[in-house]
Amino acid sequence: MSSQGAILSFIHDTTFDDLSSDVVKMAERCCLDLLGVAVAGRQTELSQIITEHAVSLFGAGQEIAPIPFTGQIASPAGSALAMGMTIDAFDAHDGHRLTKGHAGAAILPALLAFVYSQSEAQSTISGKEFITTLVIGYEVSLRAGIALHSTACDYHTSGAWNAIGAAAMGARLLKLNKEQTRHALGIAEYHGPRSQMMRCIDHPTMLKDGSGWGAMTGVSAAYLARSGFTGAPAITLEHEDVISYWDDLYERWEFLAQYFKPYPVCRWAQPAIQAVSDLMEQQLINHHEIQAIEIRTFHEGICLGGYAPTTTEEAQYAIAFPVAALIVRGTLGANEVSPNSLRDPLILALSEKISLNEGEKYNAKFPGERWADVTITLNNGEVLKTPATCPNGDPENPLTDDHILRKFHSLCEGSLHQSTIEGIVKSVGDLKRDDASITDLLNFLKHPISQNGCRYKLKRPQQNDPH
Hints:
The protein has 467 residues and is α+β, with helices and mostly antiparallel strands. The chain has helices spanning 3-13, 21-41, 45-57, 76-89, 104-120, 127-151, 159-173, 178-191, 197-202, 211-226, 235-238, 270-282, 299-302, 312-316, 320-329, 345-351, 360-365, 401-412, 418-430, 439-445, and strands spanning 65-67, 72-74, 95-96, 258-259, 290-297, 354-358, 372-378, 383-385.
């Protein structure tokens, strides 16, 4: 079978029985984690603006899709746009090292948009089909992302490639034929936002990682292909230079290489944060006694900078400020990257004592591995050094199931009723059951959150919880 034929077969013919138990477990973890991040993201100004935009300019027509956690409706493309950017608004969502980005921020919103539109038309899928389609969306996205990074000259945002995975899910759920599917994938690739990621690192704004636009593009691509719009081929799937990225489908799952974030900031900052957190577990560090802090990490991490952020977007795409916040407050959660904390004089004063330097050995390991070490010099001359550290949550040192569950609860508490929180957890856990329906989960996600502010406070792990 040709590479093109294998990919189309993977999209349309994969069944739940083709998924290993590890893959199913990863799907459950990603789904729950992303929903928690979406609840936290709804508290941001970014989410409020994009949701109103989606309702106003992407209003529901013949196809209707509720926007999760808002009580509002839009078209499927509008719903995917709003939810995708809402997840992107709070930088605690899962990611993948080789793509240097995030599939889930577009894949789950697009999947929910497709499923909601079918549900409104009295057509529902099973829980197993939901999981299977989610996995397909992730796997296609991740492989397309790796292929695009290997063939493009620029560093693009995730929307450039997770749009393709969103279109793949739409092709499956809308029951496109294989030629229509080729066009859907090609449309998504062509219209995907090939936006400049480093621009948003250097100048952080609400643009974030392009995933909301990727979700919207992928959803639109599937519907366009169903209507006869053409756009094949997708170069990242069909060109001879990328065949090697697709020739081991089913044999190896990029999906299993997903990481999860302990902290709501850019993953590139988290090796340094992890190093400081580990050091703080070993001995008490009083920020008043610190003379200087040196962080050595890879080049892209250094680019985060962020000594005195003025918006939550700048605080999430920073390294100096989050490290200082962790030391001053002993925790790093939503409150530490919220506008109310950005003027904290203690954090700002400590941030100014931080120097950032590149480590060539860390540059050589990026993007497959992300490392940092930290040296803290105290006023009395004592020097505290951390070993080279990679962040918790990678496939080699994963967060525990209990950690993922506690993170979800902490993201949702104060925003959703406890019965809704527990209902979402149960519904996600039940998806793999033979008799499971997606209806309960969809109904829980229609509940609007209260605007009381996310109380996400994921403290440093205790010694009996190594992750």
